[in-house]
Amino acid sequence: MDSSASSSSSRTPEPADSAESAASSGESAPASSSAADDAENNDSSSFEKWLVRFFLIMAFGAAFGIEGMTLFRSYVLDHDGAEAPVEEAPPPLPTLQIGDDLLPDALPTERIETLTLEAHQGDTWTFRMEVALQNPTEQPYELTTFGVLTQSGSVHEKAFRATCPPGDSTRLVAEWEVAASDIPESLVASGRAQVTPDSSVVHARRIRLPRIPVQMVR
Asked: What is the mean pLDDT of the chain?
């Protein structure tokens, strides 16, 4: 009896231990699964953030790279050793003297007879020019002078005209008021030949004036 009771008493705790072990294993399983899910979510969130940063860096890097290459080409490659284009200087204006023809390409002759600069006591001087015009052609001819340019850069657009019939001669007298001490440097001469009632031939050019003597007028 004692032996049997003792044996039975010693076997009784085994189910409790099994139950505790099962209970213990049953409680720990959900906790382990939740931790794994959290770790997986954290890994996924970190990867998404890294991916966003990667694309942002790539986008900004591409923009700055394109801008940098443009600046590099503009300031280094395009100008490295390249010579600046040389602008051709305009041909010098012809300088005429007393007795020269204003428009040598035109058949009528327009010879300069006088060039004077009258200095007055006031604020203006008078630039005077006289031209002898001869027209041996069979068409009417008109000579015009205008656009006097002075040393200060002033332009006087006042025009003077003289019309010469075929086979005849005439004179053109032109006067421009310029500022005192402002010496005329050049002017425009234009000749027009009336070939037919509906058509004409025009010759024009700007000419440089010679040194004009100044005459004091009181």
From this structure: 77
